[in-house]
Amino acid sequence: MKSTCRGPSPAAGTGIRAGFTLVEVLVALVVVLFGFMASISALTGSIQSGKLAESQTLAVFLAETQMESIRYIDNDQLGAVGTTYFDQSGKQVANASQKYFQRDVAVVFETPTIFTNEITITVTWPGANPVVMHSLVPVPKRNV
């Protein structure tokens, strides 16, 4: 039976060996490991950015909903606004020990020259810059 292989076999005394050396395998493993670590680092950073964006979106929503509700109430009721606390899902909580978000509302009543209320709403939460909304709202007309 004839062999289909041509040329001398590597083990036939030519001194050539097939395969990789231990150093080559270790270098390849280090390169793969660095690539894996870089992808894990990028994934962790994107998850953190996503959580920050989610919190910031919720903080803006809390500020906007409060601003919209203030636009339609009388000056007599504006005294009731102040500090409100919310958990991470945006649900209102009763005390500060359970809070994640804190919404503060400040009102300067009827600036006499322009007949508006100056409203500032600040939403704060841990590890981020606060969301601040500022607006001048016309004073509701009174029936005299």
Annotation keywords:
2 helices; 144 residues; rod-shaped; five-stranded antiparallel β-sheet; alpha+beta
Could you give the order of the helices and strands?
HHEEEEE
Average pLDDT level: 81
| SS-based class | alpha+beta
Uncertain spans: none
Largest sheet: 5 strands, antiparallel
- Count of helical segments? 2
Distance between the termini: 118 Å
- The gross shape turns out to be rod-shaped
Number of strands: 5
The proportion of residues in beta strands is 15-25%
Radius of gyration: 33 Å
Strand order of the largest sheet: 2-1-3-4-5
- The helix content, as a percent range, equals 25-40%
**Tally of discrete structural domains:** 1
